[in-house]
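Format notes (please read before filing issues)

Several people have asked whether sequences and structure tokens are stored in separate files. They are not. Every record keeps both together, in the order shown below: the sequence lines, then the token lines. Line labels are part of the format and must not be stripped during preprocessing.
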Amino acid sequence: VGSDLRAPRTVGWRTMLDWVDATLDSRHAGVGPYWNVLRRDGSIDTNLWTYVQGEMLAARALQYRLTRERRFLASAEGIARQTLATFGAFTAQPPSFNAMCFQAMLLLSSLTDDGALRSQMLETIHHYADWAWDSEQGARDPRTNLFHFTSAGTPAHGSGRPALLQDQGAMLQ
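Then the structure lines:
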């Protein structure tokens, strides 16, 4: 990581996203995976969360939608591929984080011409929903149809853990 981690003071959206790629992109390749946060003291929280990837994917997809510059679409597609490779079935992430990422993937699926990538994103989303709904392996309590997750996103039905509203909302999304 460079010696000056502070974001530029006066920036446009391109400058800021380029700064994020240079500072928080763990591989410095412009496609992530992106680390969680840059703290005020300059240290970086290197946790990898799906919502962070989703925000970067959405930012690049929206840049493409606004400008029609193909490089932004290519960047969004690269972030999506990296995210799919990094998180696999998404079953070890909180559902609210996944919902944010999946919304970004749905946005990208409406913009990309890459049919294989579109299929992989949609299949991943469907697989996650099917997994969470499964009352044997997933997080749904078949008596109430409420979802019970741990804070890490693993199923917790039958554990006495309450069904959190944020998890219900994420699954509804």
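For reference, the curators noted about this record: The first strand starts at residue 37 and ends at 38. The chain has a mean pLDDT of 90.
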